[in-house]
Amino acid sequence: MNLLAFGIIAEKIGASNFSLEDIKDTDSLKEKLLQQYPTLQELNYIVSVNCKIAHGNTVLDDLAEVALLPPFSGG
Amino acid sequence: MPMNRFDRQIILKDFGQNAQLKLQKAKVLVVGAGGLGCPVLLYLAAAGIGKITVVDGDVVQESNLNRQVLFGEKDLGKNKAIAAKEIISQKYSDIEIIAVSEFITTTNIVALVQSHDLVIDGTDNFATRYLINDACVLLTKPLVFGAIYQNEGQVALFNVSDANGITTNYRDVFPNPPQENQIPNCNETGVLGLLPGLIGVMMATEAIKHIAGYGKTLINKLLIYHLLSTSFHEIAIDKHPHASSLIPKTITELETSNYGFQCAVSEEISWWEAISIYLQNEITTVFIDVREIHEQPKLSDYPTTFIPLKYLSDKIESVTAYSNIFVFCQSGVRSKQAAMELALHFPDKNIVAIRGGMNTFREKK
User: Fold this and answer.
1) How far is residue B105's CA from residue B265's CA, in Å, rounded to a whole number?
2) Model confidence over B179-221: pLDDT tens digits?
3) Rounded average pLDDT over B269-277
4) What is the pLDDT of residue B180?
5) Chain B contacts of A7, Cβ < 8 Å?
6) A55 part of a folded domain
């Protein structure tokens, strides 16, 4: 699936656009990201699936467009 | 309507005299006259919003000038709300603009939000953003949200129901504020002036569209703009199951909530900047030396209050009379801690630590 990362999440991952395969839901996605990028631990971010915020654990398929969005406070 | 300065928008199909009258009757509260607030204020005033109140307790610094486009070199050291009011009222005489030269806090927010029809959040820290969100939810005021980080920006319109009667707010997106210092701010990571320019203009656009009833707005949507790739991403927001339980239930509860204002002071300034602000605001400015009494050299030529860090909480009331408080120590470590403590106690004052402390004093000029 295709993933978009924003703000500080993109910085920690080192890319703003990347793909991952065989991830069944958003909980396993977060777990996998955390394994690969342990510094995500202390960061707040939400996951959107097909342009909609995923509040609970949400099922993913390989066609899903997933975005990782941290809050911004600057002004 | 005085003059014809609105002619080009009145002749626009579907806008017309009616929409213009709605703008003229509208009262808009703009919180923050910084990178976002400057373009917001300019365009709201240009479009003919009848009453604009601008709230900001900060003063213009030289490093603001790449993005805070209302201000120029002559405004350095002035309060941002007052400077913005001066500039806008020189341009347009047919709208009312009011300056509130303090930061928005739990004590002044209710009256400010209550007396306006729409609120625009152009602030720069999470504590204030959550406070504004919660106040707008409690008082059911539409809130235009905009925020930036490095090369990206977010825009949304909160507290306005869609066709199905669904209304969302910032806590439906991010229920809780992040931990302090988790997300660095522009002062630490840098920003091109264009980014808040673009996001601020989008915020003003959403405000004007909402007030005028013109087009479709960002109701229940969060728009993200990425400057480096020139791309937009829009996501739908729906109710978060726990969001409403996190918002104070009454005005009294809001006014007594702790929004953790320590987020507001991570900024430090140079001696040169502090002294130029002092020279413009001599009566309301004080320097606080938080070093031990024996530490040398002392600061001469400027009014200094000596409060060693360990006595700060006992003597905190001694600076009540000032609105600009510059805190320094020997190298800049203790002053940061002291500035945070002071800011928690006096959330509406401009409290800033001086970078590098007395070690850098000779570098002034």
Assistant:
1) 14
2) 756 666 655 678 999 999 999 999 999 999 999 999 999 999 9
3) 89
4) 58
5) 149-150, 152, 183
6) yes
Cα angle, residue B345 at apex, residues B344 and B348 outer, rounded to 5° = 85
pLDDT score recorded for residue B1:
47
Closest CA to B23 of B211, B243, B215: B211
How far off is chain B from A44, nearest CA to CA, in Å? 6
A16, A52, A75 member nearest B236 (Cβ):
A52
d(C-alpha B156, C-alpha B221), whole Å: 6
pTM score of the predicted model: 0.81
CATH number where A9 lies: 3.10.20.30
Q: Nearest CA to B231 among B151, B174, B149?
A: B151
Interface of A with B in 27-56 (CB under 8 A): 42-44, 46, 48, 51-53, 55-56
Distance from the A42 Cα atom to the nearest Cα atom in chain B, whole angstroms:
7
- When mean pLDDT is compared over B41-45, B184-188, B241-245, the highest value belongs to B41-45
Average pLDDT, chain B: 92
What is the token pair recorded at B77?
Answer: 């050291």
Domain total in chain A: 1
Q: Which of B182, B201, B229 to mutate to test the interface with A (most CBs of A within 10 A)?
A: B182
**Residue A75 located in a structural domain:** no
Beta-carbon separation of B147 and A70 below 8 A: no
Find the helix or strand (DSSP H, E) in which B41 lies.
helix B37-47
Where do the domains of chain B lie, and which CATH numbers do they carry?
7-261 (3.40.50.720), 265-363 (3.40.250.10)
Q: Domain range for residue A64? A: 2-69
B329 is an active site residue = yes
- Whether B38 is a known active-site residue: answer no
pLDDT at B264: 46
Query: Does B238 contact A72 at a Cβ distance shorter than 8 Å?
Result: no
Inter-chain residue contact B147 with A71, CB threshold 8 Å: yes
Residue B325's contacts (CB-CB under 8 Å, 6 or more residues apart) are: B285, B286, B288, B319, B342, B346, B349, B350, B351, B352
Residue A36 lies in a domain: yes
The answer as to whether A46 is a domain residue is yes
Amino acid B253: pLDDT = 94
**Segment A2-53, tens digit of pLDDT:** 999 999 999 999 999 999 989 999 999 999 999 999 999 889 999 999 999 9
For residues B70-91, give the mean pLDDT.
96
Cβ atoms within 10 Å, residue B161: 11
User: Distance (Å) from the C-alpha of residue B178 to the closest C-alpha of chain A?
Assistant: 6
